[in-house]
Each structure stands twice: as C-alpha cells, then as structure tokens.
Amino acid sequence: MDWFTDQFAFVQQWLFESAVQPLVYAIGLGGWVEDAFDATGWVLVGLIQIAVLVAVIGPLQRWRPAEPVVDRRAIRTDILYTLIHRLGLFRLAMFFALVPLFDHLLGIVRTAGWGSLHLDELWPGVTDVPWIAFAIYLVVLDLVEYLIHRGQHGFRWWWALHSLHHSQRQMTMWSDNRNHLLDDVIHDTIIVVVAQLIGVAPGQFIAIVAFMQLSESLQHANLRLGFGAIGERLWVSPRFHRLHHSIGIGHESHGPRTLGGHNFGVLLPWWDILFRTGNFEGRYEATGIRDQVEPDAQGRVRDYGRGFWAQQWLGLRRLVNRG
Hints:
single chain, mainly alpha, 13 helices
C-alpha cells in the first residue's frame, strides 16, 4: 500500500509540475494552485480507471457477454459520460459552482457543535492500521450509497432524474456514469458532506471513490458473471446488478409502474439482505424501463433521448412533469 501511494504521489507531482501548474499560471489562476494539485490527483485516478476498463473489463465483456452488442451509438454516449466524470470535467464544474455552498453548510454544522466524528479514531490501536480504517469508511459510505439509491427509486421526483441511468438498454462497463447531471449533484453533495462529517481524509476519500467506481464499472459490464451462492452475498456481482437494471424487476415493486425495485447495493449486498430488497435469482434479463417498451393507455412509449443533451433535457422535463 505504501509503495502504491508513493508511486501515485510521484506521478501526480510530475503531471502537476509538467502540465497543470504551467497552465494554471498561464490562464491567470495562480491563486488556485493547491486546488489544481488536488484536481490533478482526480484526473490521474480517472486515467488509471479508464486503463483498467480497456485492459481488463473490456476483454471480460468480449469473453462472456450477457447479450449481443446491437446499439453501439448508445455505448458511445455512455463513453462520453464516463470521460466527463472520470477525467474530472464534472468535478471541476462542481468545484466552481458548489464548493462555496459546501463550505457554508459545513461551517453551519460545525458552528452548531457537530464536528467530524473521525471514525478511525474510535478504536485506538486497531483503526490506526490504514487498511482497517479504509474498510470502515468504505462500509459506512456504502450504507449511505444504499440509502441514496433507495431514495432515487422511492421519490418520484428523484426517479424522474435517476431513470436516465436505467434507460440504457445496451448496458456495458461504460454505463455507470450515465446519469442526469442534477442527479449527480444531489448524490455527490450528500456523499461529500457525510464524508466530511465522519472524518474521511482527502487521500482516503479519493481511494474510496476510485475503488467504488471501478467496482461499479464491473457491475455494469455486459458480462455473464455471478460470484456463486456465497460470493453473491458478499459483493455485488454483474449478475446481481443486472437484475437491478432489468425491466420490471429492478425499478418496480408491488405491481407494474410502481416505484421501488431490488438490488440497490452499490458494493455490498448486505444492505439488500438486511432490508429485504435483494433478488438473488440467477437470471440475465433485458435491461431498461417498462415505459420504454410497453405503451401507456394512450399508446405512447416514453422517450429518454439518444444523445447526451437530449437525455439531460428530457430528464428536466420529467422532473417538472412535462414529459
């Protein structure tokens, strides 16, 4: 772990000094040098993730696909979403638009006497071990992710945004970041605030997010792969998550067109077991949303858009009940 951290820090420093820092000064943003250094770390993480996608998960998809590839245009749109998120463009926009809001909210919380808990200090001698502290924060944030995911499927206004993620009928390793940008803002705001309140260090936070994202990319892969009777209950597999995206299974409960669903776990299926939302059937169903393929009473099916901007616009229309 120390070796990996040292190598990452070395490459981050080199990339920052050779490319990012000169650019920051050239465009007159010298006061943002420290933030630019942090951003360089996120870009480096994204480059590593994309390399893993192409070199590891991509061949797995070709080796054992869950379904034939028939819509490459939809996949190209998902690749665009991945590049926007993993290479820091969305995070950069979040920084300039929302960091002052984050600072203000956290200032109010701390003024009220609610400082960071620092979970890694609650068990001296044990949580001082870096990987144990990492694991504790990972489990806590994964529970928060599960609760967020339940909210995205439980509140109609939130589902209006989150449904874009489920509208992909050609699911691949690129599909994880296919989200409405407003949905991402809400999600990231909650995660950042919680991470601050429980004392996740910046370096730990980057590592946790990177680890989660890689696992989620594997889960979305066009890959016929389960982890067995025991493994399926320890870690979310591509088969387990594909059921979450399956038409009529992953996004409905108590009858057609009613919000809910199954398999909300992001990393750990433990929460689905605990809250009785898990479906461990060994099926590989078609993905998408029922109203994409089944006409309503007026004979219409819903259009979720083909390109990036159309998908974003139609998500806002759904939010205000205009489409």
